[in-house]
Automatic annotation (TrEMBL):
The chain crosses the membrane at residues 32-52, 64-85. Keywords: Membrane, Transmembrane, Transmembrane helix. This is 3-ketoacyl-CoA synthase 11-like protein. Residues 108-123 have a biased composition (Polar residues). Residues 108-132 are annotated as: Disordered.
Amino acid sequence: MTEPSRKLPDFKQSIKLKYVKLGYHYLITHEMYLFLLPVFVLIAAQLSTFSIQDLHDLWDQLRYSLISVILCSTLLVFLSILYFLTRPPSTSSPAHARFISWTSPATSSMMHANAPDRSSWSDPTARGHEPN
């Protein structure tokens, strides 16, 4: 008896491409958290094994090496600033949506048309209104 050959399922038909793109977007958006999570878990595991005496000894060693503490702190601040400056801006905020709606061509021409009416610098006779 011959066994019928088994074919792999057609993933292109069973999984919608938009969900693959959405998952990839979530992965890329949160990559920093995914990379730092194991590091934080390892640090927490190491800190949980410390006793009070170990922490006291560590404090004494760091107190006498002020230069290394300053360098590490400076490096941490620099890397944090670098991370926040290289992130793409969030386009899902309500303020961004309002800004985009205000910068549409129709809104822009409406704003330019209404600007003299709203400003106190305009001449009321130029718009056909008589002065009070």
